[in-house]
Amino acid sequence: MATICPGVRPRLRGRSKFIRLPLAAAIHLAFCAPAFAADAEQSAPPTQPSEEKPTASLESVTVTAQKRTENAQAVPLSIDVLSTDKLSEMNVNSMTDYVKMLPSVSIQSTAPGFSQIYMRGVASGSNGNHSGPSPSVGVYLDEEPITTIQGALDLHIYDVARVEALAGPQGTLYGASSQAGTIRIITNKPDPSAFAASVSTEINSVSHGTLGYVTEGFVNIPLSEKAALRVVGWDEHDGGYVDNVLGARTYPTSGITADNASRVHDAYNESWLRGARAALKLDLNDDWSITPTIMGQSQHNGGSYAFDPKIGDLKVSHGYAEWQEDRWVQSALTVQGKIGNFDLVYAFAHLNRSDWTDSDYSDYSFWYDTLSGYGKYITDNNGNYINPGQHIHGVDGYAKTSHELRINSPKDQRFRFVAGLYLDHQSHRISQDYIIDGLATATSVTGWPNTLWLTKQHRVDDSSAVFGEVSYDITDNLTGTLGARFFHTENSLRGFFGFSEGYSSHTGEAACFSDYKFDGAPCTNLDKKTTQSDHVGKGNLTYKFDADKMIYATWSEGFRPGGINRRGSQPPYVADFLTNYEFGWKTEWLDHRLRWNGAVFQEDWKDFQFAYLGANGLTEIHNANKAQIRGFESNLTWAATYNLTLTAGISLLKSKLEADYCGFLDETGKPATVCTPGTINPQTGDPVDGPQAPKGTQLPLTAKQKANLSARYVFDAFGGEGYFQAAGFVEGRRRTDLRTLENGLIGDMPGYASFDLSAGLKKNAWAFDVYIKNAFDSRGELNRFAECATSVCVQPAGSQYANVFGQYYVVPIQPRTIGLRVTRNFD
């Protein structure tokens, strides 16, 4: 024993163990002191040894990306994982917070709760409209999907075990809306073994704006040896930073001048967020458990999160009420058990989501009046001109129910598989009321006073699938995997859209074919449905050099279902497919102190769906033939010393159209790729000026490069653990539109860099943190858009309207925000 203890080198994995060092040292000395004394009696006293430092090492990360529990380093998939500690260290509260840490992920946002996510550059420039195409990235909360047609839920990130970002098509295991990738948010589960609780409160201040706060907490209550309840809650207020300043505009036709004096307000885009989650875990026996969960959240956003660059930095001048309300509740049930050696999982979820919005739409009125004299039709009942400015009241109701039943064979067998059945039903009721105050009864939609345009539609998306993957260890080092998903999808859209007969003689009420008053609309003028059955596949070969290093090659496919255009006169759009070819590696070096993963890939996107605002500001969805994305992505984590950890991630992309985008279908119903000037558009009979986007055009919304770098240093301080942390984020220039003309008018989103700084102290049950997000107040852009069709609201230089046009909006990243947080843990 005397020769063993002096050589002991405690290897404590992760910084979370650092505060245990004094205890470990005490135990070490208690057991080894007699041995040192014995050695001292047998030899001369040696030179006093220096205190040994614990060995730096990276903790292993567990994921369920392949629907079985595995070490992330053993999964042959490009995956970024943000652990509980990482989410806390980086002060992550929302979707925009965690997306900036994922190099393969980009985001297009109009306001908190209303964002579209893209992965690996698979983005066509969709405006994120509620009746647009299905998202290309699936988002899951535990086992259940939380992606609606509007986009994914932007849930408050707290008491979350990890966020997994699975890059590339996940069509076989996750189906539609996981065409380009999947993001999984895994919550902490009830634990019957011990009581635990925590409460945290934060106050923050945003530059150019107001104060905010966050209060959040959880409690884990064991009810018995086999049951536990976990309850989580949060209350957040974000300060505003966009000012609605005084302004006026004169409408050319009527000469009426309208101002916004009654709406002037500094920092009017404040946000309030409240939510809760409750989960109950019941272990029926050693093999079976059930976990019912209910989670809900309500978010109210005031004002606009975009500013008008022509008016000024973080300023707009709007004359009508603007706000958004997003409320949702999801009920879920997960049943897990064993049948023999096989694992069985049933996951059910039902989501109800309701959105209410009021927004200023007077840009549309002003520019159409300027170009085409729209204002001459806008009068009161006496025929007098009135202010033609429009404002929109919208209500969207979503309901989504999903079922998944799957079985997994033992993962330690040479031959193993996962197989399952999936079914979901999604309903979306759309109500959009375009209001002009005082509008003549004859011009208003029948039964809807002051309404120039009305949309009352019901969209239903159904899907069912059989899926599975099989893996076989060909040798101890080489494994092969094959997978497939066979699916059937249905999309229908029915209802009413358009003007009154007093305003239009060929659209809206004039086009009705049924007197049925759909959801209170005057009649029905749209009732269409489309279906599709098809399959996608996957193949993978993985070679492990040893326990710490492997390479893999993957072919995989993803898809999005087709659907019906909200403008019923447009043809349906068909499903688009993404095929991925990928070579990747996962390695650990330096005795688990350095982790380096990466992948190179090519993705071919066929018949991809492209949505934009067409005539009357109505979304149109067309297929755009094909595109190709080539890329490299990598992440590195290095425990440089026991105290210092460095992390870095990078994504490099080259995306381009592989054929001209003409903007119409040919005689066979396929996306046209031949459209030299003078070519006749068979849908309209009119000649075209050439392709709207030529072959080789870069795809929009995703930069050619995105990267992040962070450093965290921990140290002993005041009997606890202190830390300093710095992180930088870089995102390159991004196109705003696929089409050449429109992108030239509204311009690219410029590249930007932002930096976060934080410091804190943990001692016993207390933690104190101070942070600065966007420390140098960068004005990085999350979105650029115009209220109406870009070619209307934004005129080119040299136009007679160039001095007054150019009305587009910029959604910035949040300005510099400074926060102080105090946390108290209980156990």
What can you see in these coordinates?
- There is one protein chain.
- This protein has a 22-stranded antiparallel barrel. It has a 5-stranded mixed sheet with strand order 3-10-11-6-7.
- With 827 residues, the protein is mostly beta strands.
- β16 and β17 (257-259) form a beta hairpin.
- The longest helix has 22 residues, at 21-42.
- The protein contains 7 helices and 41 strands.
- The radius of gyration is 29 Å and the shape is globular.
- The protein has 3 domains: 1-55, no CATH class; 62-658 and 696-826, Maltoporin, Chain A (Beta Barrel); 659-695, no CATH class.
Describe the structure using short key phrases.
five-stranded mixed sheet; 3 domains; 7 helices; globular; disordered N terminus; single chain; 22-stranded antiparallel β-barrel; Maltoporin, Chain A; 827 residues; mainly beta
